[in-house]
């Protein structure tokens, strides 16, 4: 009997060779299918450039594609190779509203300085190394929406994915003149200098939510079967730090699948966060949409086989039918150790990717009750 669950992995350009050739892509898709995966999330927007020939980027910035992929179309190649082995493809807009990383705004803000997000001192908004576009600005939002629509109209994909930068803006932002004026019109005063002021946080988060709702409905207008996925940071840290209001997204039904980045390196911390999400944020109606983001590899870190299996088993015990791993290369290290663990263990039985109807089918209270009585601890902050 075939089961239904999400078995996903992110494909990056950082620390990975997969997207550098059509041959590498084909080998990776074959490998993922053989390991038991059923969906791949390839990056299509990163470091101020697309990984496909983009007329939106050409017209706006004079750059059709990331220069290292000139005369190729990596996303078309991923779709072709994935389809051949039965994998779903959901392009991932990794950089979202970030313009650059430690590059003073990069190419985007060099061409469009009026698109810069500003902090309370009037400086270019920068947080954890990333410089930001003004996600509250309608013109910037239209640009991002047009990138997304370009992908869903031109490629045979199964959906699109936002993340901790889409929709998002560091809460230190919003002090450009246009945003200040909009706030003043509504409240007859300037925005608070304290970026964590409750009303100021919610007001800006609401603007991002409205943008995401518009994006959701425009994607569905192209094809109602497309899945709108998102991988935000964890609530409510994400709300206070990046204006990401994921409970409202779920309440307003503008997300089909959500992958909170539970990037914890020990089971106790992971369990605490899952318990809190399942008990406090997700209901029986929304639980099927949850497939946590799991940190498989970053830098020198790689998840242990025992911890990997423990996470998957706990997810299933909580009624969580799936996960997405960051990122692909972790499966290949140490002679494919983690891939072998999955192939012979949790992913030994084949699984189909959930349909939209399955994602909207309420979970049973009995499955959730397994964690209802557990008390969650306050968890450490994300540091992406």
Automatic annotation (TrEMBL):
Looking up Pfam families in the UniProt record yields: GHL10 (PF02638)
SUPFAM superfamilies xref list: (Trans)glycosidases (SSF51445)
The answer to keyword Signal applying to this record is yes
Q: Which domain of life is it from?
A: Bacteria
Q: Which UniProt keywords apply?
A: Signal
Q: Where is the Glycosyl hydrolase-like domain?
A: 6-289
The annotated region (Disordered) lies at 364-384
PANTHER family referenced in this protein's UniProt entry, alphabetically: GLYCOSYL HYDROLASE DIGH
The entry's protein name is Family 10 glycosylhydrolase
Q: Which organism is it from?
A: Iningainema tapete BLCC-T55
Cite the source lineage.
Bacteria, Bacillati, Cyanobacteriota, Cyanophyceae, Nostocales
């Amino acid at each position: 009997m075939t089961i239904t669950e999400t078995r996903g992995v992110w494909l990056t350009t950082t620390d990975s060779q997969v997207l550098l050739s059509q041959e590498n892509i084909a080998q990776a898709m074959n490998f993922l299918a053989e390991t038991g995966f059923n969906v791949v999330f390839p990056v299509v927007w990163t470091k101020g450039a697309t990984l496909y020939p983009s007329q939106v980027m050409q017209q706006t910035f004079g750059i059709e594609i990331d220069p290292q992929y000139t005369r190729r179309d990596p996303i078309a190649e991923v779709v072709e190779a994935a389809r051949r082995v039965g994998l779903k493809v959901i392009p991932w807009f990794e950089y979202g509203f970030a313009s650059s990383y430690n590059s003073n705004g990069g190419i985007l803000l060099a061409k469009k300085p009026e698109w810069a997000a500003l902090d309370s001192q009037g400086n270019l908004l920068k947080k954890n190394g990333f410089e930001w576009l003004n996600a509250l600005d309608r013109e910037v939002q239209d640009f991002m929406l047009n990138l997304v629509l370009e992908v869903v109209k031109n490629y045979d994909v199964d959906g699109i994915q936002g993340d901790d930068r889409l929709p998002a803006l560091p809460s230190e932002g919003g002090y450009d003149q246009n945003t200040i004026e909009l706030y003043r019109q509504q409240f007859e005063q300037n925005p608070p200098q304290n970026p964590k002021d409750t009303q100021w946080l919610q007001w800006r988060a609401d603007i991002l939510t409205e943008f995401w709702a518009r994006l959701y409905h425009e994607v569905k207008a192209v094809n109602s079967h497309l899945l709108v996925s998102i991988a935000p940071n964890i609530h409510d840290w994400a709300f206070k730090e990046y204006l990401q209001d994921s409970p409202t997204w779920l309440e307003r039904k503008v997300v089909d699948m959500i992958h909170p980045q539970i990037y914890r390196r020990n089971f106790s911390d992971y369990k605490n966060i899952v318990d809190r999400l399942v008990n406090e944020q997700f209901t029986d109606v929304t639980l099927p949409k949850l497939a946590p983001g799991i940190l498989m590899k970053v830098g020198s870190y790689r998840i242990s086989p025992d911890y990997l299996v423990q996470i998957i088993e706990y997810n299933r015990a909580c009624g969580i039918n799936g996960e997405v791993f960051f990122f692909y290369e972790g499966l290949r290290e140490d002679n494919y150790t983690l891939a072998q663990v999955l192939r012979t263990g949790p992913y030994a039985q084949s699984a189909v990717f959930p349909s939209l109807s399955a994602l909207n089918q309420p979970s049973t209270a009995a499955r959730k009750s397994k964690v209802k009585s557990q008390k969650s601890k306050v968890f450490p902050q994300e540091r992406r």
